[in-house]
Amino acid sequence: MSDLDAAFGALSDATRRKALLLLTRRELRAGELAQHLGLAAPAMSKHLKVLRDSKLVEIDADASDARAKVYRLRRAGFREVSGWLEGVERFWSDQLEGFTAYAERKR
Predict the structure, then answer these.
(1) Is the pTM above the cut of 0.85?
(2) Exposed, middle or buried, 97 (CB in 10 Å: 0-12/13-18/19+)?
(3) Are 74 and 10 in contact (CB under 8 A)?
(4) C-alpha–C-alpha distance, residues 26 and 4, integer Å
(5) How far from 36 is each of 32, 61, 68, 69, CA to CA, in Å?
(6) pLDDT value, residue 98
(7) What was the pLDDT predicted at 68?
(8) Distance between CA 51 and CA 57 in Å, rounded?
(9) How confident is the model at residue 3 (pLDDT cuts 50, 70, 90)?
(10) CA pair distance 30, 50, nearest whole angstrom
């Protein structure tokens, strides 16, 4: 599975998308994410594994507690998704430009 496939697979789940939105605000520990989402720790752990494997999040040491780990967004994973979406958007722009040119010729 490519990184892009893994990212879209991870994004296909509403719970994981909610976790990502929470991480846009600040880095969070797994327990904090679980609490915000109303999930048990094992369920949150499974979602976080998918997000890590898809390279959308990464783990870092918590600055306030060296034993704790926090999750944060990983820019590189989102760049690949964004690049793919931009390619699709270019298709629609090209289609519109072609239609506009056709319509102007028919005037």
Answers:
(1) no
(2) exposed
(3) no
(4) 24
(5) 6, 20, 18, 17
(6) 67
(7) 83
(8) 6
(9) confident
(10) 13
Q: What are 106's two structure tokens? A: 């028919």
pLDDT for res 13 = 97
Q: Which residues of 27-66 are buried (b: 16+ CB within 10 A; e: fewer)?
A: bbebeebbeeeebeeeebeebbebbbebbbbbeeeeeeee
Q: What is the pLDDT of residues 79-98, one digit of tens each?
A: 989 989 898 887 776 666 76
Note the pLDDT of residue 38. 98
Determine how many CB atoms are found less than 10 A away from the CB of residue 88.
Answer: 9
CB atoms closer than 10 angstroms to residue 20: 18
Q: What is the pLDDT of residue 95?
A: 66
Rounded distance between C-alpha atoms, residue 52 and residue 69, angstroms = 13
3-state secondary structure the chain: CCHHHHHHHHHCCHHHHHHHHHHHHCCECHHHHHHHHCCCHHHHHHHHHHHHHCCCEEEEEECCEEEEEEEEECHHHHHHHHHHHHHHHHHHHHHHHHHHHHHHHHC
